[in-house]
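Postdoc handover notes: sequence design on the structure in folder B. Input tokens:
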């Protein structure tokens, strides 16, 4: 999770490549303020073919992508608690 300021956030799953650099696979950028969620951008460099989308009218795609990433994030936090606990 990354805070870009001005109520803009990013949620991504990063995969390390052979050189140790992390690639967003996938990543979604969104605006969140007072319960209002607006999607901005989605990218997945590991998909074949690569996916890059600005938010337009495909809300269903962005909602599913956000839900998938949020689920992955929750799983990660849960696993961290198990490891640390």
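Designed sequence:
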């Amino acid at each position: 999770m990354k805070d870009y300021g001005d109520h803009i956030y990013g949620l991504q799953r990063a995969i390390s490549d052979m050189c140790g650099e992390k690639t967003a696979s996938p990543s979604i950028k969104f605006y969140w303020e007072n319960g209002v969620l607006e999607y901005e951008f989605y990218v997945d460099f590991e998909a074949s073919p690569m996916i890059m989308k600005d938010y337009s009218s495909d809300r269903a795609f962005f909602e599913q992508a956000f839900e998938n990433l949020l689920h992955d994030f929750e799983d990660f936090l849960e696993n961290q608690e198990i490891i640390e606990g």
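Context for whoever picks this up: The helical segments are 59-84. Don't rerun without checking with the PI first.
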